[in-house]
Design a protein that fits this description.
Layout (H helix, E strand, L loop, with lengths): L2 H11 L38 E6 L4 E8 L18 E4 L9 E6 L23 E6 L4 E13 L5 H5 L5 E13 L2 E16 L1
Parallel strand pairs: 2-3, 4-7
Antiparallel strand pairs: 1-2, 1-5, 3-4, 5-6, 6-8, 7-8
Length: about 200
């Protein structure tokens, strides 16, 4: 990751990188500030940087295009739009899947009157489940789920999610828990590690 994109990633992580999953816009929740640390070398050869274009999670029936997400005016990350054809979004200031560091993909659990979001069943994933991210250059980064956490948005583990790691990892984030007005109380976070890459 370039110095500039790393700074943007850390800046956004200090604000809201949580997912809005109701009929509304950003939820305004805040995470703790992340201090960047030098990353160690990757545990295996990683593919060249290429943006993700498709996400497949066979265990929960996800097969979705992936859009790019940037920052909005207040410095927080965008979320995918509320549409009938919901899809996941990759935060473009995070590493691309397969590169060293935590690549972040966001998705909705519900999309207002349209019903279920692309990550509706994200909380059903378990350790060992497989996730495949297809990249624009034609390669695929294959990940294995290492853990899943459901946390209150007020206690979002910013450092664990967005802090530097010494290997290629993936974070999938959506909302969960009980409804609170037009949103959800919690975030569901899937942690996964790169298993291999394929052409």
């Amino acid at each position: 990751m370039t110095h500039l994109s790393r700074r943007a990633f850390v800046t956004a992580a200090a604000g809201s990188l949580l997912v809005s999953c109701g009929n509304h816009g950003g939820d305004g929740a805040r995470g703790a500030h992340v201090t960047p640390r030098p990353a160690a070398g990757p545990s295996q050869a990683a593919p060249s940087r290429s943006v993700p274009v498709r996400l497949r999670i066979p265990g929960i029936g996800v097969d979705t295009p992936v859009m790019r997400l940037g920052l909005v005016q207040d410095g927080t990350v965008q979320v995918p739009p509320i549409t009938a054809h919901d899809q996941a979004g990759w935060y473009q200031n995070s590493p691309t899947p397969g590169q060293t560091g935590p690549s972040v993909i966001l998705g909705h659990v519900t999309v207002g009157t349209y019903g279920d979001g692309v990550f509706r069943r994200l909380d059903r994933l378990r350790r060992g489940d497989e996730i495949t991210v297809r990249l624009e250059n034609g390669t695929s980064a294959e990940f294995t789920v290492t853990s899943l956490r459901t946390v209150a948005k007020a206690e979002f583990p910013t450092e664990a999610v967005y802090g530097d790691v010494a290997r290629p990892e993936l974070r999938l984030i959506t909302c969960g828990g009980p409804r609170t007005g037009d949103g959800y109380r919690d975030n569901v976070i899937v942690f996964a590690a790169l298993r291999t890459t394929r052409n």
